[in-house]
Amino acid sequence: MQVLLVEDDIRVAAALVRVLRRRGCTVTCVTTVAEALAAPMVDLVLLDMGLPDGDGLEVCRSLRQRSRDVSIIVVSARGEEYDRVAGLRTGADDYLVKPFSMVELHARIEAVMRRAARSSSGPEEMWIGSMRVDVTARQVSIDGQRVQLTRKEFEILVALARRPGTAVSRKDLLLAVWNTTEGAERTLEVHIAALRAKLGDAGLVRTVRGVGYQLQAG
Fold first, then answer.
1. Alpha carbon 104 to its chain's center
2. Contacts of 24 (CB under 8 A, 6+ apart)
3. Nearest Cα to 44, choosing from 137, 23, 53?
4. Alpha carbons 55 and 38: distance in angstroms, whole number
5. How far apart are CA 64 and CA 70, in angstroms?
6. Starting from the edge strand earliest in sequence, which strands make up the sheet with 167-169, in order?
7. Per residue in 97-140, pLDDT tens?
8. What phi, psi does 54 have (nearest 5°)?
9. What would the DSSP string read from start to end of 177-202?
């Protein structure tokens, strides 16, 4: 696995590089926004937010615009809800607050890469009314107009589109998209709100009180 580590703390970077290389990863380590944006595309990016020449959000946004398939995990000392939400909305797949254990980092990497592998396996296309969801190309269009979604928003939509007209529980969505049922409900709500806004129809994804969410069929 090709990994881009964006971290300006030399000691932290050295520890992460050792651990990742023991896992068999090929690691490119950079310390600035400029170096991160100039680096070749990889399978996974571990991204610090506090960089000497700018904010990691700029890197996250640019990498996500460049590729919908790269997996991005923010590893940052910024642990406030605002920071986590900003990172996820900008396109990160996960957000890990420092300090963290290497065991937890491994688990987060494995979960993110499993989801990436599942979402890219096998050709599939779904139609819900005028909305087309192309799982293979990771594209969504409504009336022929492309809708740009982040990886998480797309995975939520796919999970709902597989069962149109049926209420999908929050637990099922959390397991499908974040591989956990703990501590991510607020994150799910944020992504649902963003998904509704991008689809342009707040009623398309309906809240089912006490259960979860339902994608209106047709």
1. 17
2. 1
3. 23
4. 15
5. 7
6. 167-169, 212-215, 205-208
7. 988 888 888 888 888 887 776 655 444 788 888 899 998 888 99
8. 160, -170
9. HHS-SSS-HHHHHHHHHHHHHHHT-T
Please name the amino acid found at residue 94. Answer: D
pLDDT digits (tens, 9 = 90+) for 16-52: 999 999 888 899 999 999 999 999 888 899 999 999 9
Give me the DSSP letters along 63-131.
Answer: HHHH-SS-EEEEEES--SHHHHHHHHHHT-SEEEESS--HHHHHHHHHHHHHHHHHHTSS--EEEETTE
User: Whole-model pTM?
Assistant: 0.58
What three-state secondary structure class fits 20? helix
Using DSSP, state whether 208 is helix, strand or coil: strand
**Residues 159 and 166 sit within 8 Å (Cβ to Cβ):** no
Alpha-carbon dihedral 111, 113, 73, 21, rounded to 10 degrees: 110
Helix (H) / strand (E) containing 132: strand 131-134
What domains appear along the chain, each with residue ranges and CATH number? Answer: 2-119 (3.40.50.2300), 125-215 (1.10.10.10)
The token pair that represents 158 in the structure block: 């796919």
Peptide bond into 99 cis (omega under 30): yes
The strand pair at 54-55 and 145-147 is best described as unpaired
- Which strand (E) or helix (H) includes residue 146? strand 145-147
